[in-house]
Task: inverse folding
């Protein structure tokens, strides 16, 4: 058992993170063409709305819910010390969890049923969607069955995750957790593991820079203004391109 | 002043014969790949008609282009706020059925079917799913279908016309149509560039060609909504958007783009125009009635020494300035004021100009008594029992334009944001040149009348001769004045095009696997 635990909670997370880093860097640098959200709205738009919108907004909130408890466990516990605040936090997370569940189910059915969407689906898409579905179902049932998740996540799981980050893994706490939670943890690292090989990479190129960039974009092959200036000395530098 | 150069286009609609050679040339070179079967970077539509994709001009549906907001402008259906909020589902995006589902036929069935009682048939199959489909729409489904209830009568440009005017337009005897070839306008204020959240779309500084970097596009699909002309297309297979690249590899080599090179009617002209880039925002935000005039105003005189100095300071090469001085588009657009942009009210400042069609406008139908004529016919000849005369005479000077069977209002809604005077002005000039040439060649018009016609529209005989030459006789070199890219830039054009700007528009540079 302990070997299995060591594998699942130490070796596998590290492997997943390594694969994630190398894979994502490689893909961005050498196969940027293959990074795309691969939207299928063009082929089918109506049911996509009922899937994509609740799924995406839901998962963003749920993700940040986890992230906060991971990054700021003390503050989280402080917040949770008041029952009303705890309830607000838990209820919101759960509600958005259900959003994800609903959205993902719609997306999954759409992917299987619509022949046009089938045409742009590969095995990895199906695998990923099943993995996400299982993960969300586990997540929601944990939130319902093991209260209050935000508190024990902050007190027990956050230290575990930090121990991974600090290269000094402490798995005593996770080893004794109920199997659903363990499965949820392994599932999470599984997602990290396959991340670079899936369409999930589009998360990393979310276009936040759009907010600050000017609307129009002009690119010159070479910046003739400086090149023509006799005072600029020639350097084998690439053109400025703005 | 901040003078830049733009490779601009001019289509002479009177000459387009609707042969679609241009579309086919483009398709064979650029869009015969998987996922792009439905795309026609160059398409030719019949007007009145709904066009491609259906009703693309109806911005209540597609929310393309810019709209006025206070003193400035904003994107109608995209932009920083709307674009990012709607990124998971874009409510104004056309889908494949608005274009058509691409299909082929199972030709092999004709050969390989087992023996049976019936002739084998080649059934249509979808190029997306591979399954048999009932074809509902195809490329140029609406070709030549003026007057038809599904297409012509749903033309968004008819909105301004009263029901009576519409009826009159579609009476069988009066019915007319013309062709509208369309490519990307390589706008000065491109909505597609502004709408791209990834910043994948850009305008080239040197020649103004608007391109999508295939390595940076992430399928956020906002350009498809934002381009009011629907000239960016989403490739459902690669998950990247694509658009007309104005055959930039050919332009860089000084060759005409494929659609223009192959144009059978020789309606297409390509040349450089110098413009003042500092004025883009101001012009794009000006009053709707002033849009056309302002846009033409911002095109600069390539002979003016100040303009040349500013262009040079900006790095515009001498060869480009020289090309601008010989530019056929400059002559049509600025010198002769014969051309208009398509739907200037979208405020993208399109750099593809059209000479509006005179022919469908000019001819009129008159009722006359043909009984005398009929008596003269021999017994075997076919006799028409109606009394209509298809009249293209130039008897009355301007009467026919005003009482044209094609309401000017309709043309105005396409080419001048509803200002009939501007269209009339162009048409009258063309008519004047016609009358003038008629005096010269046929001789049934007096010199006095011909000169009078020219004077009326403010053309000199020299101008009329030039217009005639460039319209009717122009050789290849007259129609296309393209400065090739410079040798010393070869490195940037080749090497840096690859790693800075992505394999633009060439489609997959690596083999594609969906989902991964
Ligand atoms: S016409 Fe071309 S340049 Fe203009 S907005 Fe559309 S795609 Fe962009
Ligand atoms: S090739 Fe020329 S004449 Fe033929 S349809 Fe195209 S634009 Fe018109």
Result:
């Amino acid at each position: 058992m302990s070997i299995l635990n060591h594998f699942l909670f130490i070796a596998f997370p590290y492997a997943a993170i390594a694969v994630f880093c190398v894979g994502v860097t490689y893909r961005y640098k050498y196969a940027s063409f293959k990074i795309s959200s691969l939207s299928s709205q063009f082929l089918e738009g109506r049911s996509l709305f009922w899937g994509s919108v609740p799924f995406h907004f839901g998962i963003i909130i749920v993700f940040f819910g986890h992230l906060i408890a991971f990054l700021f466990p003390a503050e989280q516990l402080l917040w949770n010390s008041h029952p009303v605040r705890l309830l607000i936090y838990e209820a919101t997370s759960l509600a958005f969890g259900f959003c994800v569940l609903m959205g993902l189910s719609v997306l999954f059915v759409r992917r299987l049923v619509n022949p046009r969407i089938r045409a742009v689906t590969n095995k990895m898409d199906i695998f990923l969607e099943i993995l996400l579905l299982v993960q969300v179902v586990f997540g929601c049932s944990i939130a319902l069955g093991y209260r209050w998740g935000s508190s024990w996540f902050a007190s027990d799981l956050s230290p575990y995750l930090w121990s991974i980050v600090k290269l000094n893994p402490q798995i005593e706490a996770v080893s004794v957790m109920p199997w659903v939670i363990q499965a949820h943890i392994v599932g999470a690292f599984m997602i990290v593991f396959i991340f670079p090989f899936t369409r999930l990479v589009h998360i990393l190129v979310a276009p936040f820079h759009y907010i600050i960039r000017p609307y129009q974009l002009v690119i010159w092959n070479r910046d003739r203004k400086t090149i023509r200036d006799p005072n600029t000395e020639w350097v084998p530098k690439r053109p400025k391109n703005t | 002043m901040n003078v830049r150069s733009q490779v601009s286009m001019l289509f002479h609609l009177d000459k387009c014969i609707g042969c679609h050679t241009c579309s086919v040339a483009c398709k064979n070179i650029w869009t015969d790949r998987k996922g792009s079967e439905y795309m026609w970077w160059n398409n030719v539509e019949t007007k009145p008609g709904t066009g491609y994709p259906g009703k693309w001009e109806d911005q209540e549906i597609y929310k393309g282009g810019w709209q006025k907001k206070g003193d400035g402008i904003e994107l109608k259906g995209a932009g920083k706020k709307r674009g990012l909020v709607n990124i998971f589902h874009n409510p104004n995006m056309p889908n494949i059925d608005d274009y058509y589902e691409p299909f082929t036929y199972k030709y092999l069935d004709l050969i390989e079917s087992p023996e049976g009682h019936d002739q084998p048939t080649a059934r249509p199959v979808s190029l997306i799913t591979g399954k048999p489909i009932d074809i509902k729409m195809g490329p140029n489904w609406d070709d030549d279908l003026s007057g038809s209830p599904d297409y012509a009568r749903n033309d968004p440009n008819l909105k301004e016309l009263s029901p009576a005017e519409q009826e009159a337009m579609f009476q069988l005897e009066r019915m007319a149509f013309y062709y509208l070839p369309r490519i990307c306008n390589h706008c000065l204020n491109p909505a597609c560039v502004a709408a791209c959240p990834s910043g994948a779309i850009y305008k080239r500084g040197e020649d103004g060609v608007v391109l999508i970097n295939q390595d940076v596009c992430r399928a956020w699909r906002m350009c498809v909504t934002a381009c009011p002309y629907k000239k960016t297309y989403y490739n459902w297979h690669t998950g990247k958007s694509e658009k007309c690249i104005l055959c930039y590899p050919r332009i860089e080599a000084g060759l005409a783009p494929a659609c223009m090179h192959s144009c059978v009617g020789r309606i297409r002209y390509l040349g450089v125009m110098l413009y003042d880039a500092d004025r883009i925002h101001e012009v794009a935000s000006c009053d709707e009635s002033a849009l056309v005039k302002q846009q033409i105003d911002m095109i600069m005189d390539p002979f003016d020494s100040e303009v040349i100095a500013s262009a040079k300071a900006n790095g515009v090469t001498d060869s480009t300035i020289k090309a601008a001085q010989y530019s056929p588009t400059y002559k049509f657009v600025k010198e002769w004021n014969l051309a208009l942009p398509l739907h200037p009210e979208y405020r993208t400042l399109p750099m593809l100009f059209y000479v509006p069609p005179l022919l469908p406008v000019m001819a009129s139908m008159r009722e006359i008594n043909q009984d005398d004529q009929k008596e003269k016919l021999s017994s075997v000849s076919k006799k028409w029992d109606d009394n209509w005369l298809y009249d293209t005479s130039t008897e009355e000077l301007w009467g026919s334009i005003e009482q044209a069977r094609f309401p000017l209002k309709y043309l105005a809604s396409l080419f001048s944001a509803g200002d009939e005077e501007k269209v009339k002005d162009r048409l009258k000039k063309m008519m004047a040149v016609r009358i003038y040439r008629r005096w010269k060649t046929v001789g049934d018009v007096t010199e006095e009348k011909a000169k009078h016609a020219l004077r009326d529209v403010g053309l000199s005989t020299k101008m009329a001769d030039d217009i005639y030459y460039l319209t009717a006789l122009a050789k290849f070199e007259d129609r296309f004045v393209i400065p090739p890219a410079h040798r010393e830039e070869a490195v940037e054009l080749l090497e840096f095009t690859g790693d800075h700007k992505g394999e633009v528009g060439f489609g997959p540079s690596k083999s594609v696997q969906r989902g991964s």
